[in-house]
C-alpha cells in the first residue's frame, strides 16, 4: 500500500533570510509550516561571496524580524564573517522547522486545489507555497566563453574568493555592476593588472555633505517608495544596482581613478573570435552615464538639504579625473597578458520546478507585493518585491509580515494553529 503523503499547511522553498523571515512570522501566528532548503540555511553568504565581501548598506539597515543589528558599529558595514554570524544568530532565534539538504523538485496543483510537493526526500501536500529561493539561480556565462583557449581560467563571480585563486597574469573582469566593480577593485588593490569590460551600471557616492548617502536617502523617504510609486513602475525591478563599496569603512568606486592607476577599461564585451576580444564602443557613454546618476543623486540631496534648512558642509559635483582616449574595440588575447576571466554579468532565474501560470516571458514571476494571481502561490526576497529593501535585510521582514497576513486569511484566521508531524 502506498503511504499517504503528509500534509503541511505552508511549504516555504528556500532557507535564506527571506524564507527564515516568513518562518518567523508564521511561528508568531501559530501557523504550521516547513522550510525546504537544498543546502543549509542562509548558506549563500558563506559559500558564494569573496573573502573581502562586505555590505554596501550601513549596518543600521539590517533589521530582520526580531533581530535588528545591535553591534557596536551601526554606521559601519558588516564583513563576510560578521554577516554569516548575524544570520546564524537569526537562525538560532527563529528555530525554524527546516529540512536542510532537501531540494524541491516539483510543485503541481491538485484537483482539490492543494499542491503536490515532490522533494528529494519524499512527497507532501500543501495549502500554500511560498517561493523564497530568490531570483539568482543560474550564473550567466555567455557562449563565447566556450571559444576561449583552455589555457585561460574562467570563473563566475559566485566562485571568486580572492586574487590568489587565479593564476599569475592579468585578469579580465566582465561586467561593472556591484560584483564586477568590487571584484575589479579587490584584484586592483592586490596589485593585479585588471582589464574591465564596463557595462551600463550606475554609481553613487558613499558619503556626501557629511553623511552616508544611504542615510540621506532614508531621510528623504526613498526606501519607503513602493514599486507603484516609482516612475518606472515594474521596470525598476530590471534596474542594475549602483556600484559603491563599504570596504575599509566605505568609499566611492571610481573607475576613472582606477584607470589613472593602470586599470584598463573597455566597453561591453561582445564577442571572442579569431583570437581577439571584441568590445562595444560605449565606454565613454557608460562612464558619463554613471557620473550623471552619481551627481543626480547628490543634487536631489542638495535640494532636500535646502528645503529642510539643514546645516551641512558644501560639496562640489564630481568632475571626471580621467577620460578615455581612442576607443579600443578589439584586443588580441595572445600577447595581452590575460590568463583568467571573471564573469560578473549576473544570473537568470530558474523556477522550472514550479508548475504554475505566474511567470512572464522572461521567466520572472508576476505579482503584487509577492502575491500572484494563482491562489496559494507567493514569492518573497526578490528585488523590489515591494520596495528597494525587499531583497535586502532592511525590508524583507516587513514583506514577510504582509505575506503571512495574506496566508493567514486564506487558511482561516479564526482556526486554531494547524498541527502536523515533521
Automatic annotation (TrEMBL):
Which InterPro entries does the record cross-reference, listed alphabetically?
A: Auxin_biosynth/cation_transpt, CHP04046_FMN-dependent, FAD/NAD-bd_sf
Q: In terms of domain of life, where is this protein from?
A: Bacteria
Q: Which UniProt keywords apply?
A: Oxidoreductase
Protein name per its UniProtKB record = tRNA 5-methylaminomethyl-2-thiouridine biosynthesis bifunctional protein MnmC
NCBIfam families xref list: MSMEG_0569_nitr
UniProt cross-references to Gene3D superfamilies, sorted A to Z? FAD/NAD(P)-binding domain
Q: Does Transport appear among the keywords?
A: no
Q: Known SUPFAM superfamilies for this protein? A: FAD/NAD(P)-binding domain
From which residue to which does any coiled coil extend? Answer: none
Q: Does the keyword Oxidoreductase apply?
A: yes
Per the UniProt entry, what species is this protein from, by scientific name? Methylorubrum suomiense
